[in-house]
Amino acid sequence: MITILLGAPGVGKGTQAALAAESHGYTHMSTGELLRQEVAESTELGKSADTYMSRGDLVPDDIMVKMVAGRISSFPNEKVLLLDGFPRTIAQAAALEEACTSGAIGLSLYFTAPEAVLTDRLLSRGRQDDTLEVITHRLGVYAKTTEPLVKYYSDQGLLREINSDRAVDDIQADVLATVSGALNQSNIA
Ligand code: AMP
Asked: Which end of the chain has fewer CB atoms at under 10 Å, N or C?
């Protein structure tokens, strides 16, 4: 079962996915992490992605789809794949549906927190693309290009909102309960 983690930069998707992966053996796939590895290894993909990432822009869809599709198509349906940071555009969402088997996407967790909380968290994280200027740009890109996915998955009946303006453990309990509920549903279906 593919679980899509949606929500603005800084909302805690990566933290929550890593915790759930560790305690429950879920697979956590972060496209941001995969890209940062490519950048660190100075691969061709990394070199072209770096320009976009350091500005806070999205890496073009064709590059992202190529990177993700192969990894996803072979994922066993009875296991849980937490997709962190993908899709980020409607075009990526459509490509994801083509790449995986029908019904494989079982859930989208939508993490929410006030924008001031997001900015504070991002500034304290101190990643290379976490300067105030780039953060502001990334939040704008998110609102314009990624936020439409909330309606997209809500229309498909897959969206569950997670209030992320809470303690990490409380959010995690909510995440685990929601994933296991969806997993039960998908096993029954
Ligand atoms: P993240 O670690 O998820 O915040 O991603 C860091 C950066 O990687 C983003 O600001 C984008 O430049 C790039 N990135 C990650 N995932 C995607 C994606 N699905 N589509 C386009 N760009 C992405």
From this structure: C
How many separate domains does the chain show? 1
Per residue in 101-126, pLDDT (tens digit) is 889 999 999 999 999 999 999 999 88
Residue-wise pLDDT for 23-75, tens only, equals 999 999 999 999 999 999 999 999 999 999 999 999 999 999 999 998 998 89
User: Do the domain assignments include residue 188?
Assistant: no
In ligand 1, which atom is closest to the CA atom of 31? 16
pTM, rounded to two decimals: 0.96
Residue numbers of the domain that contains 35? 2-182
Residue 187 within any structural domain of the chain: no
| 189: in domain | no
CA distances from 39 to 53, 89, 107, 128 (A): 10, 22, 30, 12
Which CATH number is 51's domain given? 3.40.50.300
* Ligand 1 centroid – CA 185 distance (Å): 30
Distance CA 26, CA 17 (A): 8
Cα of 75 vs its chain's centroid, Å: 17
**Does 189 have pLDDT greater than 70?**
no
Rounded average pLDDT over 140-160: 98
CA–CA dist 188, 48 (Å, integer): 44
Instruction: Verify whether ligand 1 is closer than 6 Å to residue 160 (CB atom).
Output: no
Question: From ligand 1's centre to the CA of 53, what distance in Å?
Answer: 7
3-state secondary structure of 116: helix
